[in-house]
Specification:
- The structure holds 2 protein chains of 2 kinds.
- Helix content of chain A is 36%, strand content 22%.
- In chain A, helix 10 packs parallel to helix 13 and helix 15 (336-348) crosses helix 16.
- Chain A is built from 20 helices and 15 strands.
- In chain A, strands 4, 7, 8, 9, 10, 11, 12, 13, 14 and 15 form a 10-stranded mixed sheet that branches. In chain A, strands 1-2-3 form a 3-stranded mixed sheet, covered by helices on one side.
- Chain B contains 4 helices and 12 strands; from the N terminus they run αββββββββββααββα.
- By secondary structure, chain B is α+β, with helices and mostly antiparallel strands.
- Chain B has one domain (14-162): RNA polymerase II/Efflux pump adaptor protein, barrel-sandwich hybrid domain (OB fold (Dihydrolipoamide Acetyltransferase, E2P), Beta Barrel), CATH 2.40.50.100.
- Chain B is globular, with a radius of gyration of 17 Å.
- In chain B, strands 7-10-11-3-2-1-12 form a 7-stranded antiparallel sheet. A 3-stranded antiparallel sheet of chain B has the order 4-8-9, with no helix packed on it.
- The longest helix of chain B has 14 residues, at 164-177.
- Classes of the chains: A alpha+beta, B alpha+beta.
- Chain A binds chain B through residues 433, 435, 437-439, 441, 461, 464-472, 487-491, 493, 509-510, 512-513, 526, 528, 530-531, 533, and chain B through 1, 3-4, 6-8, 10-11, 13, 15-16, 20, 42, 44-46, 48, 82-85, 87, 121-122, 124, 126, 133, 137, 140-141, 143, 146, 148.
- Chain A: GO terms for molecular function: metal ion binding; RNA binding; tRNA pseudouridine(55) synthase activity.
- Chain A: It is an enzyme of class 5 (isomerase).
- Chain A: This is tRNA pseudouridine synthase Pus10.
């Protein structure tokens, strides 16, 4: 398959456009774009070949043009929307626009001059694409991309190639379009900006196949893939090109809170849509200025997040849920999420994680029974395929790694699963066992009435111990049932089944009377809570994994 | 769970206050003898303003006639409203900002003060309904107000306050120096 023999589907009306753009400093491929050439293969030709053909095209007299434009090969992938036009060029001259014919003759001298100028233009950086469709778009670049992908050592079948271009490209494109628009209008034609092929598209047409080849044949998926290889082009030399838009269209550029530039692609595009042509031409050169350097590409790989869920038990009374760090100093060794995450992060070779659970318990509270549901988002996992056996193995590894926590029902879930887990928080019930101390001495009979209390509604003001980070409010919560187990004259075990979100400790000691009713009031004595265990979190998600 | 050692008499287990709060004091507030305030500072920097055991209101079997949170024509502490996590809207108090005025049945009047700089989060409305709480449980259910100091000031507010030992020192000096104030 010799791509260099693809005929460029150019039309007579393209001639003045080609001429003007070449003399302005556009590279051959950008010229094709402005001619609305949508034949992908045309862009894959060597740029030097394309340039040569363009020059030949604009220099041709009418007769020569007839011969040269005879198709040398009729290939199936010749998918030009101008396919009909290609046959037109074989037609006798009188079928062409009469207007064009006369002008072509007059311009032959100027064309010759333009050809000479643009021959040198080969080595110059394109004024529109800033080199992206020139040297940054070939085998060397494809190899670089493939190297970056291989270096990441990802597990993947497909990949999607995404391109990020500097915002000033839009400004330069707009400038060239206006440059050509004048020319085109004089000849009674129209060049719609939307018909111009985008730099991004052309880049992908060229690079996708090459990257696939360098990766040894892994398919490059255009639209959807969990694995994204992004190429970001930057060009600090011309970043200032966008700045004039802030003065002419100030409402398009909102000041950003973080340090990032306010000249985003979106904002620039919006401003260019609004700015009248005359105003644009007053503030920006047309055609754009010649840059001295090409863009700098940066390749980054990102695999879509994978979600792992399960249930955890906590057997330690001195383990926080999340790392406890104050003023940069860690106050407590490790945490529930770190103990669970470490083996998982390592198995999935992920860059980081977000841990989330259906409620939380305090540092000094154990989680017994079936455990508490949790879900973890694994960021940029380099390995993402795990069989059920492998997940069981991973679960075992976690359980062997520490006696402070234990996990069960470990499984891969979807992103939607995260919200399902949070659903349970408000609606479900939870069971606890508390060790209660009483100030006045008690006997079994004194506490038996508690077993008969059903659906006790509490008004709980935000506990003082969390008030620094929570809004002040009164929450109504229900204690559905309780049962007691007498221990001695100052202690008993209190079992409770409550609505999710109930503060147990505050129910027991009253929190300065801000939880009403409370156990002190019920027992008519000061009470305090010495220990608390979570017995069950009644959420039936994630689905149990059979042993 | 493990079984716990116990004593039949009054238990010695550390209370909620002992476990989570530090006691600070301001003695003779605004120069008035023995009008001592106790500030309970939680480890999360939130402060609860209470009467110290030595405050006149708690002496000599006094009973409370009324508690008034309207401290001036334009300002009632009951109208204090905070919203959101950052507690916007709370009245900002300085050390000598009055919280409430308490009148006892023997016609003695006392003003309770903020003692610290910070945002007023809430005042205790339970004592309006049940003034006895203030007499029986001045350190817990009978609290006066909850104040949130600025994050940057959470340590410095205690510079003007007495710790437990310093306070007890002052109290013992009183009883030896003069007869018990009424």
């Amino acid at each position: 398959m010799d791509e260099n023999t693809v005929m460029l589907p150019l039309k007579e009306k393209d001639k003045p456009i080609i001429q003007k753009l070449l003399s302005a400093g556009c590279c051959a491929r950008c010229v094709l774009r402005f001619c609305c050439v949508s034949v992908q293969a045309a862009y894959r030709k060597q740029p030097e070949e394309t340039l040569k053909e363009l020059q030949i095209f604009i220099n041709d007299t009418e007769n020569d043009k007839c011969q040269d434009s005879v198709a040398l090969d009729s290939r199936d992938d010749y998918k030009s929307k101008d396919a009909a036009e290609s046959e037109t060029s074989e037609d006798p001259p009188n079928k062409r626009a009469k207007l064009e014919t006369s002008i072509t003759d007059v311009q032959s001298e100027e064309e010759a001059a333009a050809v000479v100028k643009s021959k040198d233009g080969d080595s110059r950086v394109c004024v529109v694409c800033l080199g992206i469709l020139q040297g940054l778009c070939g085998t060397t670049q494809a190899i670089k991309i493939a190297e970056a992908v291989k270096a990441g050592n990802y597990e993947f079948d497909t990949l999607v190639l995404s391109v990020s271009l500097p915002a000033q490209l839009c400004v330069r494109e707009h400038s060239c379009w206006l440059y050509v628009k004048k020319e085109v209008r004089e000849k009674g034609l129209v060049l719609d900006k939307d018909d111009v092929i985008q730099v991004k598209e052309a880049f992908k047409w060229i690079m996708q196949g090459m990257v696939t080849k360098e990766l040894g044949g892994i398919a490059v998926v255009t639209k959807v893939s969990p694995f994204e290889v992004s190429v970001e082009f930057t060009h600090p030399e011309t970043d200032a090109d966008c700045h004039f838009l802030a003065a002419t269209c100030p409402d398009c550029f909102k000041p950003t809170k973080n340090k990032q530039s306010v000249f985003t692609r979106m904002a620039v595009v919006k401003a260019l849509e609004k700015i009248p042509d005359a105003k644009f031409l007053k503030h920006y050169p047309c055609p754009p200025t010649q840059p001295t350097s090409s863009c700098s590409p940066q390749v980054q790989c990102l695999h879509v997040s994978v979600f792992v869920a399960g249930r955890y038990n906590k057997f330690c009374r001195s383990l926080p849920q999340t790392p406890w760090v104050i003023d940069g100093e860690r106050r407590m060794e490790s945490s529930v999420e770190e103990l669970i995450a470490a083996p998982i992060l390592s198995a999935f070779r992920a860059d980081g994680f977000n841990f989330s659970s259906s409620g939380r318990e305090d540092v000094d509270v154990r989680t017994l029974g079936n455990g508490r549901p949790f879900a973890m988002e694994l960021l940029n996992p380099h390995k993402s395929r795990f069989s059920k056996e492998q997940m069981k193995q991973l679960q075992e590894t976690i359980n062997q790694s520490s006696d402070k926590i234990k996990v069960r029902d470990l499984q891969i879930v979807t992103r939607e699963a995260m919200s399902r887990m949070k659903e349970g928080e408000e609606e479900k019930t939870k069971s606890y066992t508390a060790l209660v101390w009483t100030q006045k001495p008690i006997q079994r009979e004194d506490i038996s009435f508690i077993d008969d209390i059903k659906d006790l509604t509490l008004d709980q003001k935000t506990p003082l111990r969390v008030l620094h980070r929570r809004a002040l409010a009164v929450r109504q919560r229900a204690i559905h049932s309780m049962s007691t187990r007498f221990l001695d004259s100052h202690h008993f075990y209190l079992r409770l089944k409550t609505q999710a979100g109930t503060y147990i400790k505050e129910f027991v000691h009253g929190d300065f009377g801000r939880t009403i009713p409370n156990l002190c009031q019920l027992l008519k004595t000061d009470t305090d809570i010495l220990e608390l265990d979570v017995e069950s979190v009644d959420v039936d998600w994630p689905p149990p994994v059979p042993e | 769970m493990e079984s716990v050692e116990h004593e039949d008499t009054k238990a010695n287990a550390p209370s909620v206050i002992d476990r989570y709060y530090t006691r600070w004091y301001r003695a003779d507030m605004k120069g008035k003898p023995c009008e001592d305030h106790c500030i309970l500072q939680h480890s999360n920097r939130i402060c609860v303003i209470t009467l110290a055991e030595t405050h006149p209101i708690l002496q000599n079997g006094r009973t409370i006639k009324s508690i008034n949170y309207q401290i001036s024509n334009g300002c009632s502490r009951l109208e204090n409203k905070v919203s959101g996590k950052s507690k916007r809207g709370g009245q900002f108090l300085t050390d000598f900002a009055p919280l409430c005025r308490i009148t006892c049945t023997d016609e003695t009047e006392y003003t309770i003060y903020s003692c610290i700089r910070g945002r007023l989060l809430e005042v205790n409305e339970n004592i309006l309904e049940t003034p006895n709480l203030l007499l029986e449980k001045p350190s817990t259910e009978g609290y006066i107000a909850v104040i949130l100091p600025k994050f940057e000031e959470s340590k410095s507010i205690t510079e003007n306050l007495l710790n437990r030992d310093e306070f007890e020192n002052i109290v013992s000096k009183r009883s030896s120096a003069q007869s018990q104030p009424s």
